[in-house]
UniProtKB/TrEMBL annotation:
Active site (UniProt): 178, 306
Name of the molecule in the record: Maltose epimerase
UniProt catalytic activity: alpha-maltose = beta-maltose
The organism's taxonomic lineage, starting at the top: Bacteria, Bacillati, Bacillota, Bacilli, Lactobacillales
Family of the protein in this entry: Belongs to the aldose epimerase family.
Keywords (A to Z) from UniProt: Carbohydrate metabolism, Isomerase
Amino acid sequence: MKIETKKFGEINGETVTKYTLINQHETKISLITLGATWQDFSVKETDGRHQLLVNFDNLEDYIKTPYYLCKAVGRVAGRIAGAQFSIAGKDYHIENNEKDYALHGGSHGFSFINWSAESRVDEKQASVIFKHYIKSSDDQYPGNLEATIIYTLTENDRVTVTFLGKSDQTTLFNPTLHAYFNVTDSQHDLRKQWLKINSSKRLELNTNKIPTGNFLPVKGSNYDFQQKENLQDVLDKLKKDQSIIELDDIFLVTPNSQEPVAEIGDSADKRRIKIYSQRNAVVVFTTNPLDPEREKQHDFNALAIECQTLPDAIHHQNFGDIILPAGKTAVYNIAYQYEH
């Protein structure tokens, strides 16, 4: 195992650092301090190195992108209806950074922070630990939050992302990693990438993509990913049958550290990533963050997979508990196992 460090750029007079972790198979992940972003996940193959993430090679694009491209998201991932909530009878109003709701922790959330970082390495694994103290006055959530995000690469090509949060007041905590994948040879589109989700239900959403509280069975629908489904085939069916142009959906899963909640792979069976989560939702989203013109034509090349507790859980008792009591530490893991 080894770790390399270099300057990736600057933002607001601060250095943005890039950390690269490499294992014995020459599997490599790179992380940048802005947004605690997963910038590279590439593997050594007989014909050269292959990228598994959809990524940028420069800081400016990460600053400009509206897609949270492979960035950490928090305190609370997803949408909070009305940009308000109550804890123990007390009402809180936070920034409505998209329409009349709060999205992905607001404009001062995890994705926009230039995190402090340190690295650790031994014979079996290498890690980068990102830390930041988020004041309540920064993001309008109750409590000052001690946030930590740890990326770890092992010798068997497993990447684990650990989120830790501790607050001096009771608050909300539902972070995720907004990772975008394309594991195909060319990464040009999604015609040769498949998706499998261990889910029999998805959330019903209103026109603003806020959960209604109802669950819809996926069996017999275009949203049934219980077996491997080609992504472009699904997108074509959605457009033909329902005039829907994208996937932007939330699936209910059973938390399981032994069985993947989701899997992605290429149709040639060269590459596969199994995703493990302790929480009950997988959010999927298709887009083209690299090419605005193709994005306008709904010609997608990227699949986002976000593991978290069901979005807007604070407004739905049966969605899961995202309340973090004062003085307690919450710990959540997401693991990505590469296979070939």
